[in-house]
């Protein structure tokens, strides 16, 4: 697959002596293996989960302690060197793509669970801890950590914080922002800040939400306190088949509209059902136009009542078949196909492009139908498997990167799909972040005064613009270049705004 | 009652021509009654819900439109005039106390409900709309707005946003921050920003949380989009009496520890029970050391199951009596005493000082007992009626402002109570904000780099420090003066930090 050239000249204005940088980094890292400058070894960091974007950094550092992170950032601040922090590198929006003039700061050695306090229901973990490992550590106490991105076996809590990760259960239990209580942040000048609190309404400006989802552009998180929830007393998983995409979409809106918030409410279209069934043999109804997987959780009485209510609703929206898992094994089978859907699609196409848009639930059927028409127009298959309950679509566009022009056509189709999301009142990013992938689209998303306020906030944390430059919030030069902002006679609309 | 002199010289460094200011304000306000400079009329604004603090502003303005707010802020920005925004003026921490050199910006004419969208479950309202009016407007659709501060008949949504207000139901349904989707903010330089989104994870830095609870120090909110929730299918209210304060406190920790999140879980001590009973004759057990009022909501089945579980728990913690409301009238009676508790206390004492601390639930009984000892030590009665479920205490210290020295002794006792909260791992502010009341205590709450980061954030929104100066986040001069920060040889610890 061909890789993109993505950084603009404007993103690459850093001048410093590379040998000096490497020498000084070496002085502050106790472990000689914590500093990587060898090109072959650096290849491990040149891309993240969005493999279409590749870039080698100048060096990679793997600090072991907070003090080392402080020392690294102080050096970078002094020499004006870009810093891209990286967790497990599973970002789907190139959020951890290295900067060509910068260092890659891996948090992989920050992999300890520091404390699980069952009474306060709080776990304190380092950012390199895997998402699933938190729930595993909490399980002996009957507790778990709610956000569960598809990559939860691999992705790190630090990366989850950077991208405000969601998952199947975020419909009921919220995104990362709703499940993190406090972070310890090292600022670019090496100060350590505690941001957030275990208390419900801590004094001071609430900066936690600004940090979460900021894609490493405001500081480097070195510790995270997360909320643990009690395991639901009981769970029930249902699978319903619908004869049309419309019926499935309307059932989703109907369930939520009736006041039920399921633990998870996922939708798969026929292409996804078939791909998953071929791969894991979950026993899915392969002739259904669409299936819904609905997980209800709570007390026995609550779940039984909701289960009856949801069944009745699904019937009223035309479900041709409703299955209710009677054993944990059956429940697991219902989920197996959904969880294996992405790799299953990987088996039927050389490449696929995973998108991430949100739409108001009531427009689900319209959008799915129009996406089908776009798929036919471009001659590219689109597979849909997504978080229907919160209107978070993940269309997978199937293509072959070795066929000349197919990646470009895929990206064009992707652009049309995202325009469709915006047209019905949605957004172009659900839970995967902006990173480098969607940076140009952000020029249209924000008004100039909004961008100006973002820059002001950025400067409040990172006055020299060294943290993950070029990501998440577009510079005015980028917006001028990509034509999304109105430029008069070659001049930028805000010549007085400082740039990054 | 004697009023405090609270602004420091450092807060009052503004120099401008008052006549020029008034003339220019007059030019931008269409309605001549929208500009108040007459001292008698200004008295209406000299204090808020914390009457111990009084200050007349230079002028008050009551704009009718967003354009007028923009024009007012542009004038204040140009002339460098402090601006204190005010909703209904019910703040209990003097958050809306006028600045002696500033204007008071009343949002009382921004009192329209712009839209109630039942399908999207969103209401768009102006900031001067009363909290309860939102639920009233949503009621025909079976929806309501969850945060319900005690002052909900009077307090405004704009004030709720400024203080991140809570209420009885915030245990289950969250604070204002969890129920606001988007705000429209006018910046000090007159720009209009949309901050937040109806989408689950909007792109860009998440600045909404920083705005909510920022006490009008980052901008002026002129529109708020709030989340509406479906009315619970059913509700059950229970009242349980306990023979000791310990037993009640332990029952609270036990209920939450057992995985139940009630819609509300309130506690009243004997003094509060008696005061309320004398006032509204709710039929409370006046010999109980403490009562718990527990509201359970959800589906029929869920509520019935939880009700049985809570009853059993309360019995196991020694409840001497458990009543379950069988009719809406009974439920209302259980709540009547709690809701009337503050005015009831007002009947038995010339003055009272309402405090607002949080503690970990497990320390409830310890703190209540030690508070009793402190009350005896100071010879001042302390009445407790509070949000037990989330550990948010509201001790009411009873005093007589006409007895020389009694206010001072009350404040000293208040300080000791807050120290006690901090000692057990709590905070000195729960849901009433910092305002002017707790500003000095904030010097101890934050580390110098944390304060520095707050100042940087403040500058990103308000470079000249004009919005509500002197509140919420203490200046370094204030901290030096009040001794909470270490000062060497008369120098501030951070001479290089810009000041407000």
UniProtKB/TrEMBL annotation, chains A, B:
Gene3D superfamilies: 3.30.465.10, 3.30.70.2190, 3.30.70.2740, Uridine Diphospho-n-acetylenolpyruvylglucosamine Reductase, domain 2 (3.30.43.10), Vanillyl-alcohol Oxidase, Chain A, domain 4 (1.10.45.10). Keywords: FAD, Flavoprotein, Oxidoreductase. Its cofactor is FAD. The keyword Oxidoreductase applies. SUPFAM superfamilies: FAD-binding/transporter-associated domain-like, FAD-linked oxidases, C-terminal domain. Residues 53-231 form the FAD-binding PCMH-type domain. This is Glycolate oxidase. It comes from Alkalispirillum mobile.
